Amino acid sequence: MNKATLVAQFEKVFGRAPEIVTRAPGRIEFIGNHTDYNGGTVLGASIDRGVAVALARRDDGQRHFHSRYSGRTVALPAAGEPAKQSGDASWTNYPLGVLAALPHFGLRAPEGFDYLAESDLPAGAGLSSSAAIELASALAFLGVTGQSPDRETVVKIGKHAENHFVGVPCGILDQGVSGFGKSGRLVFIDCAGPRFDTVPMPAGASFWIFNTHTKHALVDGLYAARHRECMEAAKALGAKLLVEVSTEKLRSAEASVDPVAFKRARHVVEEIARVDACVKALRAGDLATVGALLTTSHRSSQHLFENSTPELDFLVDALVAEPGVFGARLTGGGFGGAVMALAGPGFTAAHAEKVALAYAAKHGERPDVLPMGVGDGAAVL
Ligand code: ADP
Ligand code: MG
């Protein structure tokens, strides 16, 4: 998905050239499961797939949005507050949410324009196409109006759009990784700040996503329940957030805390320690240790946080048995969704196919197999 393709597509749809083309990547939660709302840390990978946006201003007060995602052009007036859309126009809530967010950061939204989004990232696969379209949109709107706030502000604009306009209470991971990603590096986020950094991704490893298309019927309720359990566990341990609880303190409190609360707390406290250990192993180029931490993270989800499923466990078990796989874990909130494997060149498409077929034989449906590398963060092309 290069600039020339976007320009050609824009010309086909709108009959003229765009003024600006931007692109932002999707992301993988590398390690740091349910750590964000507990004030902890997380590592993410910006992937080499994303959403691109092409834009040219119009002077008739109209905003025309087009994406192959829905196929028809959505025409809306630029005047007044952006109104939330539904049905086959609901995808425009992402760019509209960005337009609505800009004034909250002291920034101006462009008036009328033609807008095109193109993607090589599957939507709804847990790879955060939503953050990608938000950040690509933000850079395009800012670019044509000659505004250049710092990167953290761009990230926060995307999150604001998703939280307040689209109405999804996501943390800072999705937009932070899409915004701060760098080819050959992983993004480290201390969610308490937030503070953003990158760490090197050792050469010779690639990511494989296995998307199961499964989703627990009660996923929203289960997510809320884990959130509540974590807050209650922190309180029982004399802390505001679990990030304040050390592994020693946790161990000494085991007998006095409710056993379920203890399991949830242990997952989060140890997961934050695993993020730390992972950063050290990445800096040392030690992929074997990184992989072991990924798989340990999954086992903790499976047994302590109980946000895994038999489908995800099956994939992790099958993947870690294959040659060249350093480690595997569920990625994202859990209760269905996708598994990520970190693998070396010894793991090939044929091995991935074998795992997919074994999964299909047991669980009926084939998972999508998506090999990917680490790519650059959001940018004007
Ligand atoms: P995820 O972020 O995991 O991909 P979400 O449900 O959060 O899943 O976001 C997916 C939504 O983002 C889609 O339903 C669509 O509204 C929007 N979207 C993603 N990619 C595009 C695109 N190329 N064009 C238009 N809308 C898109
Ligand atoms: Mg999303």
Largest sheet: 8 strands, mixed
Q: What gyration radius follows from the Cα positions, in whole Å?
A: 21 Å
Element pattern in H and E: HEEEEHEHHHEEEHHHHHEEHEE
Strand content range: 15-25%
Helix content: 40-55%
Oligomeric state of shown chains: single chain
Count every helix, treating DSSP H or I runs of 4 or more residues as helices: 11
For the record, the CATH class of the largest domain is Alpha Beta
| Span of the ends, CA to CA | 11 Å
Number of strands: 12
**Coarse structural class:** alpha+beta
Question: Which CATH architecture of the largest domain is right?
Answer: 2-Layer Sandwich
Task: Enter the CATH topology name of the largest domain.
Answer: Ribosomal Protein S5, domain 2
Mean of pLDDT: 95
- When the domains are counted, the total is 2
Overall form: globular
Bound molecules: adenosine-5'-diphosphate, magnesium ion
Which stretches of 5+ consecutive residues score pLDDT under 50? none
Key descriptive features of the protein:
381 residues, alpha+beta, Ribosomal Protein S5, domain 2, Alpha-Beta Plaits, 2 domains, 8-stranded mixed beta sheet, globular, binds adenosine-5'-diphosphate, binds magnesium ion
